[in-house]
Amino acid sequence: MGKPYTQPTAGITGHSTAFRTSPMRCTPLVAHETVGPDILISGFLQPIPDLTPIIPSVNETSAIDPTVTPDDARILFFYKAWDPYGAFSNFSPYPLHMTDENGVYLTWPSVEHYYQAHKFIGVNDPLARDCIEKIKSSKSPEEAAREGRKIQKQCPDLVRPDWETAKIDVMYKALKCKFSIYPHLNSLLLSTAGSVLVEASPYDLFWGGGREGEGLNYLGRLLMQLRSEFLGESLTSSESSSEHCNL
Ligand SMILES: Nc1nc(O)c(N)c(N[C@@H]2O[C@H](COP(=O)(O)O)[C@@H](O)[C@H]2O)n1
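YS: structure for the whole thing
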């Protein structure tokens, strides 16, 4: 699944520049060359996220989660693992027991370990496999996040090519597992019915709500989606929880 990368060749009258970010075996992030009056840019350009929606409006949230009604919705923020509702953070230390795509049973120390490692899963490169192991054995979720982000930045060609579209599904699977295998977390999530959940990360404008609500809050959205699904299930079945999850 590795991303093919061709080093651009300079035109007859041009010159080229490539930026290397690390002494590791990484391809350049971006290269540019001047060809006559033009500048040709090639390489891996970070996709620009869609920043249109902000924290979902109460009406929008009611569509995801019918337990939220326009009149009584309140916003429940969470961020650091030690805060009230910190168990909703991906950095809270709840190990996940999951089978992988080959049916192999694995334990991930936290959602963050699982999420960061999945940036490199499926990439046919021994270096990507080393990165996964390094992240999986990180001593804390913070260390896993640091490692995953560092490798993603320094070696973009080790990141699976579908990451930007796959990451929401990866996170959904991890969260579904976390809130399925820990009954007290499941109860905590259900106890928030009626509230809008927002990850109060001031910096993460994709997973978090941002400093002033400018973030997309995808973590909060997924938790609210799961809450709805669990509420629906609890009305229709009396299934007991399992201690591990199958993909
Ligand atoms: N820096 C930081 N500290 C925390 O305590 C957090 N909960 C987060 N947010 C999480 O970071 C992950 C996103 O990582 P990438 O930027 O995609 O590498 C995700 O789990 C957020 O919920 N950040």
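YS: worth flagging: Residues 11-91+182-238 form one domain.
IM: good catch. Also The longest strand covers residues 30-35.
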